[in-house]
From TrEMBL, chains A, B:
Record has Transmembrane helix as a keyword: yes
Main location: Golgi
Name of the protein in its database record: LARGE xylosyl- and glucuronyltransferase 2
Superkingdom classification of source: Eukaryota
One GO cellular component term noted in the UniProt record for this chain: Golgi membrane
Amino acid sequence: MLPRGRPRALGAAALLLLLLLIGFLLFGGDLEYGRPREAAARDRDPQTDHRGHNRSDCVLLRPLPAKCELLHVAIVCAGHNSSRDVVTLVKSMLFYRKNPLHLHLVTDTVAKNILETLFHTWMVPAVWVSFHDADELKPKVSWVPNKHYSGLYGLMKLVLPGVLPPALARVVVLDTDVTFASDIAELWALFAHFSGVILLRLDRLRQAGWEQMWKLTAAQELRTLPATSLADQDIFNAVIKGHPALVQPLPCVWNVQLSDHTLAERCYLEVADIKVIHWNSPKKLRVKNKHVEFFRNHYLTFLEYNGNLLRRELFGCPSPPPPEAEQLQQAVAQLNAGDACFEFRLQQLTVPRVHLTFLPHEPPPSRPNDVTLVAQLSMDRLQMLEALCRHWPGPMSLALYLTDAEAQQFLHFVETSAVLSARQDVAYHVVYREGPLYPINQVRNVALAQALTPYVFLSDVDFLPAYSLYDYLRASIEQLELGSRRKAALVVPAFETLHYRFSFPSSKAELLALLDAGSLYTFRYHEWPQGQAPTDYARWREAQAPYRVQWAANYEPYVVVPRDCPRYDPRFVGFGWNKVAHIVELDAQGYELLVLPEAFTIHLPHTPSLDSSRFRSSTTYHDCLQALQDEFHQDLSRHYGAAALKYLTALQQP
Amino acid sequence: MLPRGRPRALGAAALLLLLLLIGFLLFGGDLEYGRPREAAARDRDPQTDHRGHNRSDCVLLRPLPAKCELLHVAIVCAGHNSSRDVVTLVKSMLFYRKNPLHLHLVTDTVAKNILETLFHTWMVPAVWVSFHDADELKPKVSWVPNKHYSGLYGLMKLVLPGVLPPALARVVVLDTDVTFASDIAELWALFAHFSGVILLRLDRLRQAGWEQMWKLTAAQELRTLPATSLADQDIFNAVIKGHPALVQPLPCVWNVQLSDHTLAERCYLEVADIKVIHWNSPKKLRVKNKHVEFFRNHYLTFLEYNGNLLRRELFGCPSPPPPEAEQLQQAVAQLNAGDACFEFRLQQLTVPRVHLTFLPHEPPPSRPNDVTLVAQLSMDRLQMLEALCRHWPGPMSLALYLTDAEAQQFLHFVETSAVLSARQDVAYHVVYREGPLYPINQVRNVALAQALTPYVFLSDVDFLPAYSLYDYLRASIEQLELGSRRKAALVVPAFETLHYRFSFPSSKAELLALLDAGSLYTFRYHEWPQGQAPTDYARWREAQAPYRVQWAANYEPYVVVPRDCPRYDPRFVGFGWNKVAHIVELDAQGYELLVLPEAFTIHLPHTPSLDSSRFRSSTTYHDCLQALQDEFHQDLSRHYGAAALKYLTALQQP
């Protein structure tokens, strides 16, 4: 994956880093490409290269911020694509940082939903995040004519001084399309060195009224120029022009722009220590530049970086972990490493990082009987997605269990697929891999929690539903009056084919013909018939109307239920019993099991996953699963009393 | 994956970094945990934290090496496991480095084979590698009694001054189990600052005779101490004790050891800038230390780091790429980006990084008719390996197409599998993923080139051979006198099952019964019968002796051939025609095709790979494959003249 064009959302701002001292950076520093003049003027070191260059004696002469000083960063972020960009920016910042950070995020609803969950599950020590509602800021900037609706988000940088907490004196403002190549503390140090003076002037600045200043300038620009629109950068430039004393440009190493601009090129050719790379050229990697690979590789490093590795504490800074992380650590500490199920219990306690709606997504319009297909998958099932989209024309909520690098491959896969890119009603949620066992029910719960329709079809990704299923389910829900009358789970009978290629039946009649011809079987007919037996396939053949069936041990049908159904039990990690337990829970809560006479779904052949092969060969795995089942039944008794006894006794029958 | 115990190979040396100035580091520097005393003594900065700590104004006051100065590094490395460690060390070094590097590697045969291929295919700009034969050095150190045979490799650090080129004045000597967290230039700078003085003293040192010095010390130790063995570190310590003026210890940040040693802990708690982490504690990650996660994550960063991203040029240093890289760049520059096959041609020109024998491997004893099973796979077929090991008791050469992170998962998979860990005759070669298309034939060629027996069975990883096949093939080779008489390819008839679980036939009779029962089919009977048709399954049923068959269009049998058979044509990337072209080549070179009457192999069901799904849906893919086939036929004509026409005309028949 190569980085793509900068999202239009944040407009055409060319300045990457705005050091806003709730206003502008004011200092009289004396900079020469980031090196103090003294160093540059110092006698040449005997060690000079053939071109007569000389490396400075010191990487940085400005004092770094005090140990453990909290640094503040503000980012304006809107939409799905910018939310992905922010993650890469934050990873590069965390990789080099040594200080606690407070991120002030100005977000629209989409970005807030994504980033709130992400940071909540990321649990990085010594990182605090607060959100500011971009929608509330719109009226403050919407009077400025702008080329694109989303250009408004760029303009919001102008009102940050009024939005951020009054007590906050300094903040580094970052565009979403930058990558750090150094410690942000070095950037912060540009404040610190002159802090006394600046804070004083800042107060004066505030009294003078920054808000009035930019508004007047913008209004004036609009009067005197024939421009029909103003981006945030246009206004910043105009203010700077009118008040040159207000601003001190950053050394160019802090904004190495990937463009053909010779000035930028001179900057990074002269200076070995590039601090920040700005992906602001519309040409991006097409730029004919021999160093483009350096920039690209640096960017890819953090794009693919395992974000879990950034959950590291700071040296010598008291940085208590987030409360949830602390609870988890205590729970982990209480685990008995000698327990045969130690690995299972550790995996259950692991909270994986979650990136909701990794790709642009349009929520479906609200309809009373609508159904979302819910499923989870990993990289080895990606090739199922196109077929699934052809079979299910309705909304889907899919959770993908991936590494950071795989998430980029997935992105590329969707973007190069005409079928997948055409669908805006499929939400993809990335759950980042962590730990040795597959937390299948945790991943399923992420997909389930993000379904936005009143009903969900709980499927698996290696099943293709009948072409008519989406319409048929909605009609059945209406007909059965599930909305008001009944607490029911609609069973979709499951079949399987053993052939790679096979012509999908277009009706129940065709399906039955294939079944009789031995081209199709009922699902896991050879290996695990009890998983589907209560569906009663013989009755289904003849059925004209929905019929009720009774729960029996090991039953794991594919069902349609209301969105507020019980979650999957996250204790079942790896493979085995993860769906069975969910059906038990539905039955215990009094859901009727109604088999639909025209519904069907077909399992396609695939290689068994690594986790399931492990399951089959390991006795520990079997023993642990038994222990987890016992605990599950104990919990059932606690919740449902004597009524839950039937689940245990059913299992114990021969 | 967590880092494991330090390999015994390099003994128990506790000192990580030996700055050998062809001897020892001599300087009178004035260090306080890496910070110059001036900085420490300076007035406290107004910005101090609540604990009164103060950050130094400067990360480093020593001058960095001149821009583009070549830095020399020496590493002693022996065996498969240390070779893997070296890769992680080198990745961390390359990530931070800004100077050209020359690596002086002292290696045994195994490590040389691995690292030579690795660096040759890695093609990192501005990195030079030279090898020194550890076996030749053994006599120089083998007189020192040592606890373990492989401890000899540690002792070789003592003789480096005599081994490295006489013109080389300075070298940084690294153990294999260290990870950089900073630019090695900062370490090198410890030389540079005092270089004039040191080099002078060095000359005196040389005259004084380092070699005599350590030998005398070692001999004396052996006389006066009851020790029965001496590791390299024992000798270094003894020399230092006897000649304290010879050595200046490195600031502790350059050797942050993961142990319970309080000194080390004080070092890294006081100093924010850790430079090098040394994984020398036998307890490793079990150490009760709240910062262990920091160390672990830093290590995992480079363990999993995509090494391809380190192929970046240096800024402003004239660093011509290796000649092969230059040729490739020219070939890439000549590609026409408008060509529909551009992506294919780019993939063909990509040289993937190769790590041979990623895991310990014992070459099979030399036997005249021995056969190696050759195959390639990616992550999604890993679960086939155990079954394959059960079916094929002979040597195997397997190439795995993986990312760096996947290679670690693979390692974990093998280490936790009793079946796989028990096999020393299976060589695993990692080919690192690069580019969008699967270079299947390049990967196969890596496995083929590493087969060490006179014959190879060219298989695919989703096939399980008859349990008797290994013995039967060797008997057949002997009986058919392939060694002397015939140029032949022995055909192993291929079948397939469509069931996940299935009871593997133990004889041809059982196989035929399953075939008749419809539980087995001939391979791709439904989808692509022409791929196996010339094998003539009807004849095979009845055959008692090997029989010859004629080539026909699209034939792609599984064959046993001499190791020096033609390579696979690397132009076929992605899927389609990759094996067909190889069989054409065999036929063109006059290999007889002999079907073996008792041989068989069975394909297990699996999900189609991502690449093959792409192939099936894309017309560009089809068109390109056609273009590649045309070019292949043109090349055939060039090589084999009019005789090759038959391959083209055979295809054109309806």
